[in-house]
């Protein structure tokens, strides 16, 4: 960055308020994009990257690592840019959508603050709604790769929280019933399920998958839950959407691989991108 850009507190410094860094990131996005505020944020997981092109006019595309608190993505299949997109809604109104392509996963070892930084930045830009997407393993054999599932709840198996200190946040209806109903208005066949977030980066064992199923999980993955908690803390309304990219360990007769996840996401990409774009235009 040039010398005339104000210095930003270190997000990794325990003495730093992470919301100060989020505000600095939002200011950078506004300065570079020329968009004063955003209405909706979209976090694109594995397989979901094509949705941005279907939303509307790209106002600005910013390398994420140039935004305070962000880094280049270290996971194949994730896009390293943040985009501001102008969306024309069916009622003639205009919305600005912030598409966060650079998601930080807990297993990258950068800390929970980095995991939550994307949604906190989105909230600082003015977004009141966030759509969190992911690619995940399914526990039901009837949900084949390519199936989209709406999240109705989650299980946090990371033993971590993005909240610090005595910060108590109610997570009842964390995944907005209103937004799920809106998604069903676009596709009434979408099933709903409970997502279990594991820390990763290793895939779950068959025993862990069985455990997750016993306590109520329908899906397993390595993202989304911590982001959703941070978003609720920021006062955002949350819609979670999972793409089943493979059957989970012990459910699938085949060994798991990241290549399988990417391949399933690529195959489903056009269909799920169109679905997501139609939903976002209604939010």
From TrEMBL:
One GO term describing the cellular component: cytoplasm
GO MF annotations in UniProt: purine-nucleoside phosphorylase activity
Domain of life: Bacteria
Residues that hold a purine D-ribonucleoside according to the record: 204, 246
Catalytic activity: a purine 2'-deoxy-D-ribonucleoside + phosphate = a purine nucleobase + 2-deoxy-alpha-D-ribose 1-phosphate
Role according to the record: The purine nucleoside phosphorylases catalyze the phosphorolytic breakdown of the N-glycosidic bond in the beta-(deoxy)ribonucleoside molecules, with the formation of the corresponding free purine bases and pentose-1-phosphate. Cleaves guanosine, inosine, 2'-deoxyguanosine and 2'-deoxyinosine.
Similarity annotation: Belongs to the PNP/MTAP phosphorylase family.
Name of this protein: Purine nucleoside phosphorylase
Organism (species): Xylanimonas protaetiae
